[in-house]
Amino acid sequence: MRAMEPAAAIFAGLGFQLTPLGRHSLGSINHLMMTSGAYLELVGVPQEGKQRQEVLESPSGLSGLVFATGDADREADRLRAAGLEPSEPVAFSRPVEVDGETPEARFRTVRVPGRLFPAGRVYVCEHLTPELVWREEWLSHPNGFCRIDRIEVGSTAPDEDAARYAVAAGVAAEGRRVPLDDFAIDVVPDDRARFRSLGLRFETLAVIREKALALPGAEWSDSADGVALLEIPKFGLRIECRAA
């Protein structure tokens, strides 16, 4: 998301609890929408100063997927052995406002080449200070958001791409589905490579539905199967909403 302020306003208006604006040492900015496991990130670049090139080059909308690891060096070795040509681990940080102080949240990431994952950026991230990211005050959302359910990836070669995502995640693919601890990646045929949609779970759909219908820039569609569709055309976002 390059247009951070309007994106943050839309997600706050939909009832998500956003973390305070973070400023990464690499030249990007972010807001997080946390769960106890996998989380959503709005990421962009500042108007002035250092700007992170790969974020600048990313399209608006769903543009990145990050897997967790406990050891970035070990993960880089594993990915290299699997033929995914990873970068060397890159360290960066951002200040976090906690109890009137600003400690540094620290990370190490490993990136794989975009030509291997043309739908969008793929990283592996080691959280060195998880206690500064998964904080109780950020886990509760007014709209009842509780977890990520799935991400749907469009591909011109879905079988091959599903296998590649599975290797990147360090799990076994189940056909074109890549099951992870918190959510699943579903790779589907498409005429172009892209992250097509995101599936989220809510305690109930009543609150998010009410907020979406009242919010300019959001479109809500109910369906008989209990899967509602939330669209944000400004950012090309399609979000499948399900009750937990």
What do you see in this structure?
This is VOC family protein. Pfam families: Glyoxalase_3. InterPro entries: Glyas_Bleomycin-R_OHBP_Dase, Glyoxalase-like_dom. This protein is α+β, with helices and mostly antiparallel strands and 244 residues long. It folds into 2 domains: 135 residues, Roll (2,3-Dihydroxybiphenyl 1,2-Dioxygenase, domain 1); 99 residues, Roll (2,3-Dihydroxybiphenyl 1,2-Dioxygenase, domain 1). It has 5 helices and 14 strands. The mean pLDDT is 95.
Fraction of residues in H or I helices: 10-25%
**CATH fold-level assignment of the largest domain:** 2,3-Dihydroxybiphenyl 1,2-Dioxygenase, domain 1
Strand order of the largest sheet: 9-10-8-11-14-13-12
Number of domains: 2
- Radius of gyration over all CA atoms, rounded: 18 Å
CATH classification class of the largest domain? Alpha Beta
In total, the number of strands is: 14
Pfam family, one: Glyoxalase_3
Organism: Chelatococcus sambhunathii
InterPro entries: Glyas_Bleomycin-R_OHBP_Dase, Glyoxalase-like_dom
Protein name: VOC family protein
List keywords for this structure.
single chain, 244 residues, alpha+beta, 2,3-Dihydroxybiphenyl 1,2-Dioxygenase, domain 1, seven-stranded mixed beta sheet, four-stranded mixed beta sheet, 5 helices, 18% helix
